[in-house]
Every structure is written in structure tokens, then in C-alpha cells.
Amino acid sequence: MSKGKFITLEGGEGLGKSTNLAFVKECLERRGRRVIVTREPGGTPLGEQVRAILLGDGQVSPPTELLLVFAARAQHVQDVIRPALENGDWVVSDRFTDASYAYQGGGRGIDAAVIASLERYVQQELEPDLTLLFDAPVEVGLARAKRRGAADRFESEDLDFFRRIREAYLARARSVPQRIRLIDASQALPAVQDQILRCIEAL
Ligand code: TMP
Fold it and tell me: Atom 15 of ligand 1 has which residue's CA nearest to it?
């Protein structure tokens, strides 16, 4: 049986990742794929508990934050992602390791080499086949995120934090352009979905 493929959705807050997750699933299912939709932090019972800690309002230091996202990821890779891919299913995840480079690396200032070593330890050779990076000026996303309701621990950060995250994401897209495809999320939904469709068809 052929192995499935692994697609991740990334980007700042409020840029339509979650809405488009459903669209990606639908596109793949129309092409006859079995699809598992998941998210990070989360995706397993342990991961969802970690998510509650990370998004809650308690104190979490940057190193703790990094280790928690990778702890959740280790369980997610082992219990959900690898078994699904081995089974020939396609996995679509709302965020994965590029988010650690962007938020913990760019946002919190943690050295990328530390993140890379955890990435190797937790994932070994596993990496996404395609990453859709939703990008727009940070003001656009934050205004939309605000309309969604109360801010979580990340959403309460200042504008500079989100600018650093966007820069870190864009730097990653420049360094692995064959995997990370930029989606202009400032466009209207039909235009965004056209871009997504082209990336999926190419895959
Ligand atoms: P969201 O998926 O609803 O946007 O919320 C998840 C939050 O977790 C988001 O603010 C980004 C953050 N996050 C990290 O800081 N590092 C990570 O590695 C991941 C996967 C998420």
C-alpha cells in the first residue's frame, strides 16, 4: 500500500487557517483520499491537555513553552501522524514544527539550532510533504482574531511579537520553497481557495 501524504497549514493568527482546513480536506476527499484532520498543539488526549496549558493564562517560560510543544508533538507523531501515513491516509494538520520556529524561535528568541535538535529527536526523517503558509500583514490577522472573542496567551502579545513571527515564517518559506507555499491570505476567500487548489493539484 502506498504511504499517505502529510500537509500542514501555518501562519499568524486570524488568517483563515481553520476555515481552509475544511476546504483542504474536502478537496482531497473529492480526489478519493482518506483524510485525517488534526492540530497542534493537540491531536491526542495528552496534546490537548498541553494545549490547555499553553493557551491558558498561567506563567510559562520560553524554554518550558518549547519543550511543551515538542512533548505534545512527540505523542502526536507517534500515535496519530505516523500510523495514519503508514496506513495510506493523508494527514492535514493545523500547525506543526514550522510554528515552533516562528513562535518560539522568532517570537520568543530561542536559537533555531535548539529547535532543530528537538525536531530531529522527535520526528527523525518525518516532515510535511506540503506546507501552506497563510500570510498577510499582522494587523489584518489580529483584527480578525480580535473579532473572534477573548484573546489566548499568545494572542495577548504585542504587535512586535507577531511581526517577528511573520518574519520567521517568511524566512522559512525562503529556505525551503519547494515545501512551503505562500498563500496570500489578504485576498478574498475564493481567491485564497484558488491558490490552495493549485498547490494541492501540484502535489
Ligand atoms: P491556533 O492553532 O488556534 O492558532 O493556536 C495555537 C497557538 O499555539 C498559536 O498561537 C501558535 C502556538 N504554537 C506555538 O507557539 N508553537 C507551536 O509549535 C505550535 C504548534 C503552536
Answer: 103
Nearest to 126 by CA among 83, 163, 156: 83
**Ligand 1: centre distance to CA 40 (Å):** 7
Span 50-66, average pLDDT: 97
Confidence of residue 1 (pLDDT cuts 50, 70, 90): low
CA 131 to chain centre: 8
- pTM for this predicted structure: 0.96
Select from 80, 103, 156 the residue to mutate for testing ligand 1; criterion: most ligand atoms less than 8 Å from CB.
103
State if residue 154 touches ligand 1 by the CB under 6 angstroms criterion: yes
Q: How far apart are CA 70 and CA 66, in angstroms?
A: 6
pLDDT of 104-120, one tens digit each? 999 999 999 999 999 99
Q: Which CATH number fits domain 6-202: 3.30.1330.30, 3.30.70.920, 3.30.360.10, 3.40.50.300?
A: 3.40.50.300
